[in-house]
UniProtKB/TrEMBL annotation:
Cofactor binding: number and manner: Binds 3 Mg(2+) ions per subunit.
Organism: Microbacterium immunditiarum
Oligomer and partners: Homodimer.
Protein name as annotated: Lysine--tRNA ligase
Main localization, broad class: cytoplasm
Gene: lysS
Biological processes per GO annotation: lysyl-tRNA aminoacylation
């Protein structure tokens, strides 16, 4: 199978042997380009090009030309060849810009001459980046085009593109995201959506007087969440370090220091499982606001998400990849954890319910006990079994067990419960929020209890952080805080899995 035949058969998926053959042919063409530029520095390709316009700009300006129309306007553009066809005296190619916009290049014998036309036929392949200059016209079929007068290969694709009209497998999309971006509109749209989400979050925070900061990713001890960390070693300090699992304890130091409205969009790392909603490396938003509580921070979180939905889709009703519409508008429900669990289980469950009774309920329901079970973990497992599947609209699940939330203030009226919520959308936890624990005496007691769990083998238990406690001892104002996964926010807005929302996810 020759490379010329391969590029004209857009529906053919080349075999490994054919790819090898095509690579050899294309390398030969590169050698020819190199020989033609023997006196030029920089290798076989030009360092810069006299581009006057972009493909999207031309489409916006001349997209409504009637079939056969001529403009008399000369433009010079560059793009990737994603379709090529020859009719003898005329060659057609679709040039694609980075955003997916396309324009047709028409290389005519009558305009460029026999030598240039033949050179195009011999050198240009699917995937190449090509520079063309010529008049902006509309073809007889009404396709916006450049009637080429000058052209040049800007960069040669040594390997062929995948089938532009087929579907890459999910594994191929993840492992070769660069190809996914070339061939699939949805991949490019997801990158744009993520950028708009981050911009919208920052705009909303700015409107509320928040400052964005950066905190350490390498830490002498992990903290701020119950998770297993990645470890590394610093040769300069001859010390073991940890990739952060959360920025919480540093952001709270900032609040102690007087930055009363602070947020960070950051990368976190947790040495745990990977599935459709979890990734070992993920993007996280955390924010803290002095002189508010978990109710006020819930209002802010709802506004952040609704504004992000509008920024991406123009509406708080989003359409997922499978066509399902999901309504993020209005005021979201706030559902007490213990009350909703009691209603669903058909029996009263409270912070005082005996541990053995919780175990009996779990066993009767076939709920797998978590490692190192404690009262709060069992309550949360039972809630996920009985209540979570019934949630459809975005819902703040309020008031969690005290013993699973060591950084959260105890509820002001309900003993054994803390002022914490988890936000559920699309069947998964999207965000969490707290009335933050600011008393260093109680915080130390909580850390000690966590240390006891760690001594029993709980790898996710928190450690005593003396530096953080010292900061609290200098006085932290009453504060509301929240954390939200950026990848999961994209999942809620697009209906995609987590590996689709991350540009380059970790794969084995």
């Amino acid at each position: 199978m020759t490379d010329a035949n391969a590029q004209n058969d857009a529906h053919a998926e080349p075999t490994e042997e054919e790819v090898f053959e095509q690579k050899a042919v294309r390398l030969g063409k590169r050698e020819r380009l190199l020989a033609e530029r023997a006196d030029a520095a920089g290798g076989p390709y030009p360092v810069s090009l006299p581009i006057t316009d972009t493909i999207p700009e031309l489409r916006e300006r001349y997209g409504d030309l009637e079939a056969g129309a001529e403009t008399g306007v000369t433009a010079a553009v560059a793009g990737r060849v994603v379709f090529s066809r020859s009719t003898g005296k005329l060659c057609f190619a679709s040039l694609q810009a980075g955003d997916g916009a396309r324009i047709q290049a028409m290389v005519s014998l009558a305009v460029v001459g026999e030598e240039s036309l033949q050179r195009w036929k011999e050198l240009v392949d699917l995937g190449d980046h090509v520079f063309v200059e010529g008049e902006v016209v509309s073809s007889r079929r009404g396709e916006l085009s450049i009637m080429v007068s000058e052209w040049e290969i800007a960069s040669k694709a040594i390997l062929p593109l995948p089938n532009m009209y087929g579907e890459l497998s999910e594994e191929s999309r993840v492992r070769s995201r660069f190809l996914d971006l070339i061939v699939r509109d949805r991949a490019r749209e997801t990158v744009v959506a993520r950028a708009r989400v981050n911009a919208s979050l920052r705009e909303t925070f700015a409107a509320h007087g928040f400052l964005e900061v950066e905190t350490p990713m390498l830490q002498v001890q992990p903290g701020g969440a119950s998770a297993r960390p990645f470890t590394t070693h610093s040769n300069a300090f001859d010390a073991d370090l940890y990739l952060r699992i959360a920025p919480e304890l540093y952001l709270k130091r900032a609040v102690v220091g007087g930055i009363e409205r602070v947020f960070e969009i950051n990368r976190n790392f947790r040495n745990e499982g990977a599935d459709s909603t979890h990734s070992p490396e993920f993007a996280m938003l955390e924010a803290y606001q002095a002189y508010t509580d978990y109710s006020g921070i819930a209002d802010l979180t709802q506004e952040l998400i609704q504004n992000a939905a509008i920024a991406v889709t123009g509406s708080t009703t989003v359409t997922w990849a499978d066509g399902t519409e999901y309504d993020l508008g209005g005021q979201w429900d706030r559902l007490p954890m213990y009350d909703s669990l009691s209603d669903a289980a058909g029996r009263r469950i409270t912070p005082e319910t005996p541990f053995d009774e919780l175990v009996a309920i779990a066993e009767a329901e076939g709920v797998e006990l978590p490692p190192h079970p404690i009262h709060g973990k069992l309550v949360e497992e039972l809630w996920e079994h009985f209540v979570k599947p019934s949630l459809t609209r975005p819902t703040f699940v309020m008031d969690f067990p005290l013993d699973t939330s060591p950084l959260v203030r105890e509820h002001r009226t309900i003993p054994g419960v803390v002022e914490k919520w988890d936000l559920y959308t699309r069947g998964f936890e999207l965000a969490t929020g707290y009335s933050e624990l600011v008393d260093p005496v109680i915080q130390r007691e909580r850390f000690v209890e966590q240390a006891k769990l760690a001594a029993k083998g709980d790898l996710e238990a928190m450690r005593i952080d003396e530096e953080f406690l010292r900061a609290l001892e200098h006085g932290m104002p009453p504060t509301g805080g929240m954390g939200m996964g950026i990848d999961r926010l994209l999942m809620a807005l697009t209906g995609l899995g987590i590996r689709e929302t991350i540009l380059f996810p970790l794969v084995k």
